[in-house]
């Protein structure tokens, strides 16, 4: 069994701050979290697990880290440790050698260690659009932005570009300390097999993911049928699969591109599956205008009528909801994901998190593909709530719970394991940050450190399900230079077809 030891870090467990602690990972699970300045001394030794490890271990840097760098160091094992013994007191050397060969040590002294972050809504398919030039006049409203950029992009994507987009996004997630994502995919002319392509690419980099395909009427009946089948097939595959790294939801674009017939087909397809939907809701006023003019219903009322809402459904944005819709959403126990940077960029408005929270709506935080950096998204959410309400404490009263507690709760419900906690028995998803707190770090001061310090830090080491996927800030399973070169070539071809 592989073992990873992260020693002497400042550990945020998801529930408390440990000023100095060692985290021991065995397989895909956290085996021990040992608090105290001499936590390494109290760590169970290799072998039979009963001996104590001396604290004066020796570490050596690996080849990826220059000796004068301040990043954590690694070694196959410390050279001066006490050898485990058998019951008669004799050294069990064969057991020791076998265990040491499978152990990695990370010296996190003085650095912050946290649970891996969760992104509750993103769009991998947008990864190659960075810097793309529109071929039409600049959009003057939200629907034009969809028509002139995003719908044109998703029509042009090929399966190879989807795979590269997933790899690129995964690398950026890892470097931002994000270990779990909820992706909402669209590629209306490359539908069949798109989700398994994304899943394979993310799996190679080690990311935990919940995927769906965006069903929409905008490309006609054949694309609708293919989208329904892509969701259904992927849902069946994930329900049948073992493990906790991959999950599925049924993807829908938004009410304004879904007819009654399409909504009915989608809800029938998901009836026999124990999953919910993932859908954009009232992101712009146009969604409400369309629903009211064509169906004489508000967006949430329409979705409720078709049975789309429920405790496993993820709604995104919810900016233009009235009081009745908020009550319906709260009663359904559906999730609502806030994406502030995207909302500001698209000039669609801003939702009041306090109003939604007070009504009992379950809230989470996502990026809508705008960034992979959840710390930055949290900062934006904090500032935007302060600006919206005119109250300097508004962000503090709502946003901190989203970044860690709420997003983790959504992930726990989805994957069935205790994501977001660093405790014995929880999945080994954690981040060692290149951040040494320059002022006292407590539960009361954590949010200040996030807003004014950690937001600018990078993930130094990332471990997901016991797999060391980022080491010294470098992805273990990907050559970044090669990936950037392949992505640049693919993007140029995509832009030419766009």
Give an overview of the whole structure:
By secondary structure, the protein is α/β, with parallel strands linked by helices. The protein has two domains: 3-115 and 421-476, Urease, subunit C, domain 1, CATH 2.30.40.10; 117-415, Metal-dependent hydrolases (TIM Barrel). It contains 15 helices and 19 strands. The strands form three sheets. Strands 1, 2, 3, 4, 5, 6, 16, 17, 18 and 19 form a ten-stranded mixed beta sheet that branches. A hairpin with a 2-residue loop joins strand 2 (17-26) and strand 3. Helix 12 packs across helix 13 (394-415). It is globular and about 65 Å long. The N and C termini lie far apart (48 Å).
Summarize the structure.
This protein has 15 helices and 19 strands. With 498 residues, the protein is an alpha/beta fold.
Structural domains: how many: 2
Distance, first to last CA: 48 Å
- Helical residues, percent: 25-40%
Which CATH class of the largest domain is shown? Answer: Alpha Beta
Query: Which descriptor suits the 3D outline?
Result: globular
Mean pLDDT: 89
How many alpha or pi helices? 15
CATH architecture of the largest domain: Alpha-Beta Barrel
State the fourth-level CATH superfamily of the largest domain.
Metal-dependent hydrolases
CATH topology of the largest domain: TIM Barrel
* Rg measurement, Å: 24 Å
């Amino acid at each position: 069994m592989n073992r990873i030891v992260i020693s002497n870090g400042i550990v945020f467990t998801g529930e408390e701050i440990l000023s100095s602690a060692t985290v021991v990972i065995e397989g895909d699970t956290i085996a021990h979290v040992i608090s105290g300045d001499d936590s390494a001394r109290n760590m169970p030794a290799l072998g039979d697990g009963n001996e104590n490890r001396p604290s004066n271990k020796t570490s050596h840097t690996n080849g990826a880290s220059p000796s004068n760098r301040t990043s954590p160091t690694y070694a196959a094992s410390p050279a001066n440790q006490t050898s485990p013994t058998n019951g008669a007191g004799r050294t069990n050397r064969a057991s020791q050698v076998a265990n040491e060969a499978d152990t990695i040590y990370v010296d996190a002294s003085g650095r912050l260690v946290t649970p891996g972050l969760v992104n509750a809504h993103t769009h991998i398919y947008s990864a190659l659009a960075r810097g793309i030039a529109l071929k039409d006049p600049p959009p003057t409203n939200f629907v034009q932005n969809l028509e002139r950029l995003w719908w044109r992009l998703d029509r042009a994507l090929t399966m190879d570009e989807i795979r590269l987009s997933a790899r690129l996004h995964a690398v950026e997630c890892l470097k931002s300390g994000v270990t779990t994502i909820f992706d909402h995919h669209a590629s209306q002319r490359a539908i069949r097999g798109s989700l398994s392509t994304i899943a394979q690419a993310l799996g190679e980099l080690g990311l935990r993911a919940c995927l769906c395909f965006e069903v929409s009427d905008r490309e006609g009946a054949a694309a609708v049928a293919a989208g329904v089948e892509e969701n259904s097939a992927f849902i069946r595959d994930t329900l049948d699969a073992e493990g906790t790294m991959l999950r599925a939801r049924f993807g829908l674009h938004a009410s304004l591109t879904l007819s009654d017939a399409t909504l009915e087909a989608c809800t029938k397809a998901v009836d026999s599956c124990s999953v919910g939907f993932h859908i954009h809701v009232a992101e712009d006023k146009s969604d409400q205008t369309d629903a009211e003019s064509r169906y004489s219903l508000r967006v949430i009322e329409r979705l409720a009528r078709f049975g789309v809402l429920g405790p496993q459904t993820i709604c995104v944005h919810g900016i233009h909801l009235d009081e009745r819709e908020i009550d319906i959403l709260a009663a359904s126990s559906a999730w609502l994901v806030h994406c502030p940077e995207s909302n500001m960029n698209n000039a669609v408005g801003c939702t009041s998190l306090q109003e939604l929270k007070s009504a009992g709506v379950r809230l989470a935080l996502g990026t809508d593909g705008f960034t992979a950096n959840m710390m930055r998204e949290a900062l934006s959410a904090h500032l935007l709530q302060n600006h919206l309400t005119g109250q300097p404490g508004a962000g503090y009263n709502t946003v901190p719970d989203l970044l860690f507690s709420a997003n983790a709760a959504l992930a726990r419900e989805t994957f069935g394991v205790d994501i977001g906690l660093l405790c014995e028995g929880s999945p080994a998803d954690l981040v060692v940050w290149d951040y040494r707190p320059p002022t006292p770090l407590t539960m009361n001061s954590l949010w200040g450190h996030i807003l004014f310090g950690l937001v600018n830090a990078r993930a130094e080491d990332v471990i997901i399900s016991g797999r060391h996927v980022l080491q010294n800030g470098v992805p273990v399973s990907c050559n970044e230079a090669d990936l950037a070169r392949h992505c640049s070539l693919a993007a140029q071809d995509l832009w030419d077809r766009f």
